[in-house]
Amino acid sequence: MDESQIQAFRRNRLADAIQKLSGGNVTAFGRLLGYSDGTYVRQMLLGNRAVSEKSVRRIEELRGLRNWFAPQDLASAPAGHDFSAGPDVYPFLPVQLHMRPGVPGYTTAPDESDEDAPLSLHKHWLARRGYVPGQLLALRIRSAGMEPSLNAGDVCVVNTADTELRDGQVFAVNFYGELLVRRAQRDGSGWWLAADNPDQARFPRKACAGPDCVPIGRLVFKQSESI
Predict the structure, then answer these.
(1) Which of 214, 179, 183, 215 is closest to 198 using CA atoms?
(2) Are both 215 and 151 inside the same structural domain?
(3) Is the pTM higher than 0.90?
């Protein structure tokens, strides 16, 4: 069992512990560990910070979590796309993306404005669609550009393994260094990014061409309180 597999196992067990003790509320779990909020715990869940031996010992001191990360459980650690050994539900915490114009790739940081429980998707739902948890990102919509399809405050899941623009599909795009969520439109030989909002004066469509328009992934799920 290499270090990456150990960390994947520990992140899954951490997610289970959060669900067990705080109903999925990361901030509440962070406070159980003595932190002021859930930032440190989010960083571990996202893989931006290792789940260290010290953190393991600290978590196992909480009521009901004795031997929670017991070594014999490592046999159940998920590997690659093997859903049979993973948790029943995978949590996805909204993140913020940091990117540069014309540069593929990005870094993630916890969405500090989000204090809700993580969005959770069942492994059967993921497996049937061929989605790999490690290739999915949760992002919070902050603009009115995609109303009424997506509203400010909605959380969407982006499949970063699906970056080839397709007519009519919604993509998250690195557009000149800024995150843009728009519907792809094929017009002649070129691609355009169009808003669903009917106010096209405020949200005009934009040409997606050259190195400054880099698709991050296709939106595959949304969680919304707008009915």
Answers:
(1) 183
(2) yes
(3) no
